[in-house]
Amino acid sequence: FAITQFSSRTTTHFYFNQFSASNWQNQIDQISQLNEGTYTAAAIRNVVEDVFSPLNGSRANVTKILIVITDGESHDRTSLPGTIKLADDKKIIRFAIG
User: Fold this and answer.
1) How much is the pLDDT for 88?
2) For residue 73, what is the DSSP state?
3) C-alpha 49: how far from its chain's center?
């Protein structure tokens, strides 16, 4: 499990090799919401290239799922097609909740 938050910048709070299942609620409760825009394409690109990396605990032999929760239209929506292709090329299944 990994958690990355995005606005005008992207912040990874927990990588796959950092998140502890024993106190997950406390870890999540300590995250403060960013309020600086909605740059969805930049966030997806960051997750695909950084979070889904073996160095950060992503395993090659598992199904990769990315759930994007957003507050509205992306400010960088013209970059979404290329970013989606990047995720598709790495076989990352995506779900969006808006």
Assistant:
1) 97
2) -
3) 10
